[in-house]
Structures are given as C-alpha cells and as structure tokens.
Amino acid sequence: MKTRSAAQGIYELLRGEIVMNVLKPMDTIREAAIAERLGVSRTPVREALLRLADLGLVDIYPQSGTRVAPIRIEKVRAAQLIREAVEVEIVGRAALDADAETLARLETLVDDQRIAAGRGDIRRLFELDEAFHRAIFAAAGFLSVSEELEDLRVHLDRLRYISVAWPRPAEFIVREHTAILAGMAARDAAAAAAAMRAHLRAVLAPLAILSQDMPQAASG
After folding, report:
1. Which PANTHER family does the record match to this protein (predicted)?
2. DSSP secondary structure string for all residues of 98-147
3. What is the pLDDT at residue 166?
C-alpha cells in the first residue's frame, strides 16, 4: 500500500510538472534522480512513469531512458473536439438550471481570474479556470463527467500553459468566461453555448505556429 501511495503521489507531481511546462517536451527524466529527490525507491517512480506513458505524457525507450513526450497535435485536436461536444451541451443545461448562488460563485471566480491575469499569475489563472468549468458541470448536475474528462484534458492543458500569452493574452480568457457567465445569467442557453464553443476553440489558435516553429510539437 505504501508503494502504491508513493507511486500515486509521484504520478500527480510529475503530471503537474509536465502540464505546467516545468518539465519541458523532450526533457530527459531519470528514475534515479527522481527517487533521490523524493526520498523513495525506484519502484514507485517506475510505476508512476508507466502511468504517464499510458497517458501519453512521457515516452519510454527501453535501454535508452525516458523523455517528456512532445505535445502531439492529433491528441490535442481530439481532446478539444470531445471537450467541446460535452461542455457546450453542459453549459446549455447549466444556463437553465443554475441558481443565484452558483451564478455568484462563477462571478467571483471570474473576478479572481481578472486579478490573476493582471498580476501575470498564470498558474493561479489556470486553477481558477478549472474551478470555473467544474462549477458549470456541477450546476448542470454532471460533475462526475468533468472528472471523467480529466485525462483527456491534460493534452489541451499542456498547450494552454505554454501558449497562454502567445498569441492570446490571459485577458482573453477572462473575457470569454465573462461572456459565458452573461449567457448563463440571462438564462440564454444558446448564448452560453455559443460563448463556450468560441472559448474552447480558441485554444487551437497556436497549433499552426507551434507545429512549424517549435520542436515540442509532433503531428502523430
């Protein structure tokens, strides 16, 4: 049980570092170095890396080592397509079901995002972004669906984290969330859905530049 618990913690730590670009695409990951850093044996580190490989976040080369996987464009496109299909439907339902308390919670989250964007606190902005979307799922009564999408979203999140200020400033995210909230507050399911669709499609804007100019993207 201790090994499993350690492996889970290591998995979550490395997953977060990859998503937030602390560990960059094509960086080498050494089991021994991670084990020493965290004060554990190599067994839970190896288990965590195998899970990350299954998720597509690392590439393991037998006898050669492990590297952080490049951002794979096809995975990003697939994740965005599925997320759009689900969240556009969810926000339409939430627009009809959200109560005053939920709308106030969403408004607070948008205000906090505006502050984070003004400070250039990208990590906090993304935390608040996740909270905003989860609150919409909860308002529609489908929070469990949000949890099911977590592994899928990880490929989108990698792209979002490296491109939040390129070419789309963080302030744009706040504006897009404001438009979603406005549709919900007006009980206008169509307007909320249209704003959500535009918001979720905007993340794809950097893909063409990324694939041409940066070695951290791969087409397959």
Report:
1. TRANSCRIPTIONAL REGULATOR, GNTR FAMILY (PTHR43537), UXU OPERON TRANSCRIPTIONAL REGULATOR (PTHR43537:SF5)
2. --HHHHHHHHHHHHHHHHHHHHT-HHHHHHHHHHHHHHHHHHHT-HHHHH
3. 53
Output the furthest CA–CA distance in the chain (Å, rounded): 59
pLDDT tens digits, 15-65: 999 998 899 999 999 999 999 999 999 999 999 999 999 999 999 998 889
CA distance 36 to 211: 35
Are the beta carbons of 83 and 152 closer than 8 angstroms?
yes
Cα distance between residue 115 and residue 124, in whole Å: 10
CB under 8 Å to 129, separation ≥6 — which residues? 113, 173, 177
User: What domains, with CATH codes, occur in the chain?
Assistant: 2-69 (1.10.10.10), 72-212 (1.20.120.530)
- Distance, in Å, from the CA atom of 134 to the CA atom of 128, rounded to the nearest integer, reads 10
